[in-house]
Amino acid sequence: MNQKQPIKRSKELQPLSREHHQGLLLSWKIRKGFENKTPPEKIMEYALWFYREHLVPHFEVEEKLLFPILGNEHPLIVRALEEHHQLTALFGSEASAELLRKIETELENHIRFEERILFGEIEKVASPGQLQLIATHHYNEPAFCDNDVLKFW
Predict the structure, then answer these.
(1) What count of Cα atoms within 13 Å lies in the side-chain half-sphere of residue 152?
(2) Which domain holds residue 27?
(3) 13, 19, 51, 152: least buried by Cβ within 10 Å?
């Protein structure tokens, strides 16, 4: 059986990858909410909390520190920025089952793209100083803390 090996990420980017893991868990939680017949409004309440508390700061770090390494004109960065804008628009829309399914799919696809393609390309060209800047700037922050008050999964 051919099992995929985990992607070996530079230590400076590992915290961003851990944040991606939390984003994948959001997609899983949305799916689980539908399985449990949770009202879309309740799922959306949690999704909006997650967006504000975790995705917005994550996007900011990527856009200010990570993406400039390849340059904002690079096709992979153009794609990543477009996906950030699309996700932001989705989180700003009226809650519905259809919207939540779109968020779940788009978020998971975006994270898989960044992890499987974009981060590897950035690691190929990033200088040790650039990677250290990312690590120093972003990772004095506390570890992920979930919102158990809004738990539905």
Answers:
(1) 22
(2) 14-141
(3) 152
Decide if pLDDT at 6 tops 60: yes
pLDDT of residue 115: 97
**Token digits of residue 4:** 């995929």
Sequence-distant (6+) residues with CB within 8 A of 5 are none
Contact in structure between 61 and 122 (CB atoms under 8 Å): no
Tell me if 4 is assigned to some domain: no
Cα 106 to Cα 32, 115, 132, 138, distances in angstroms: 17, 14, 30, 25
- For residue 146, tell me if it sits in a domain: no
| Residue 91 lies inside a defined structural domain of this protein | yes
147 falls within a domain: no
Count: domains in the chain: 1
Tell me if 87 sits within 8 A of 106, measured CB to CB. Answer: yes
